[in-house]
Amino acid sequence: MDPHHEDLKENGESNDENNNHVCKKIKISPLISDSEIRDEFSHHDPGVARINNGSFGSCPASIIAANKQWLLRFLRQPDDFFFNQLRKGILESRSVIKNLINADDVEEVSIVDNATTAAAIVLQQIGWAFAEGRFQKGDAVVMLHYAYGAVKKSIQAYVYRSGGYVIEVQLPFPVDSNEEIIAEFRKALEKGKSNGKKVRLAVIDHITSMPSVIIPVKELVKICREEGVDQVFVDAAHAIGNVEVDMKEIGADFYTSNLHKWFFCPPSVAFLYCRNSSELSDLHHPVVSHEYGNGLAIESAWIGTRDYSSQLVVPSVLDFVNRFEGGIEGIRKRNHDVVVEMGEMLAKSWGTNLGSPPDMCSSMVMVGLPASLGISSEADTFKLRTHLRESFGVEVPIYFKTPTDGNKDGCITGYARISHQIYNTVDDYYKFRDAINQLVQESFNCMMLLPN
Question: Does the keyword Lipid biosynthesis apply (predicted)?
């Protein structure tokens, strides 16, 4: 049986001689049409230019329906679902992921709620190593300055409290080349190895969140190997469906990516890849359940009674993306090309610049906002973002860039992170362009906005 294609009786489900529900395969057209794409995302608010796929992703209607059917299967007969269907379904999803990321073995792939959970799994075992004396106090963990906030908090909770020394790689922004990133990374590793200490873990983003830049992970992992770093964890929350993901080429010990951001899954679901090694047996889900000690993949597949449906629709999502020319690779390339084009259009209209060269952008691009908007703090970015949402129907995150010389006059201090996904149209970006141009023409300044 192929449960990810099951539908309710009124939508074509039949029964076998034992009155069990039997699914019928949905006939899928070779390529999806523009009207079908619009239908798949018709649940989006039509009054909002949603150019922020990067934050929460987007789930098409057909996958929402498949998600609902999995939930109904559980609610219809929970015991049968748990004992006979859940583990099998999750294994099928893990197998799809294994092939997508070119892993060696399905046992290297666990499914978890999100990249934040994956980070907790990896950092928990690092914290134990410090606490149990396998790592020495003052040994280092290196992470990027632009690491995601929740990952920084996990490092603080698991590593710093256990005696680890945390080093942040100071990255430039705007950035012009991979060489700038590599040079700063090498400096951080040298600092971590000073005074005879060791670098026990390097945490490397594949795509930083804010500001958004593709990081040269293959090169940085290779440097880590050359410099004797014990383990490498790649936080790739935005990667799957956004950039090429190949475990054999990247060579990290641990790699995580959300599937609900750029791979059309419902929230929330992610994978954690753990390269087969001695460390694998010391990894445990932070929620301890009956499956503790049976391997991370099995532990993660049952953390108590909850809704697992988002983890079970991965095969259906693969069917969905394969309706597009070139599959997920084709979607990824088109998203990149369009978002760069739109970013350059906005920068030209506003007289600003992109935050990085096009080859360092994924399906997200940082675009400088006019200096006259007076963005002088992170608080201003939230106020402006709210104003754009409520007054113009534009949803886009904004990043505050502290001026290097301390002089804000005439400097670009705010960058918008625009996304492109298959549901976006050029009108979304024109709406954003015109909103900013109107604010500039009205001599708007962030000081005019009340605190949120």
Answer: no
Domain endpoint, select from 284, 318, 352: 318
Q: How many CB atoms lie within 10 A of CB 335?
A: 22
Together in a domain, 257 and 361 = no
Residues 265 and 382 in one domain: no
Averaged over 435-443, what is the pLDDT?
A: 97
pLDDT, tens digit, 9 for 90 and up, residues 102-144: 999 999 999 999 999 999 999 999 999 999 999 999 899 999 9
Q: Are 305 and 189 members of one domain?
A: yes
Residue matched to tokens 């492109």? 420
Which of 282, 300, 318 is the C-terminal boundary of a domain? 318
Q: Work out the percent of the chain whose per-residue pLDDT is above 90.
A: 81
Question: Distance of CA 238 to CAs 52, 193, 205, 260, 318, Å?
Answer: 12, 30, 9, 9, 17
The per-residue pLDDT for 8 is 36
Structure tokens belonging to residue 109: 């792939």
Estimate to the nearest angstrom the gap between the alpha carbon of 7 and the chain centroid: 29
Amino acid 188 reads A
- 273 and 376 in a single domain? The answer is no
Phi/psi of residue 178, each to 5°?
-65, -30
Tell me phi and psi for residue 233, to 5 degrees. Answer: -115, 120
The alpha-carbon radius of gyration of the chain (Å, integer) is: 23
| Segments forming the whole domain that contains residue 425 | 327-448
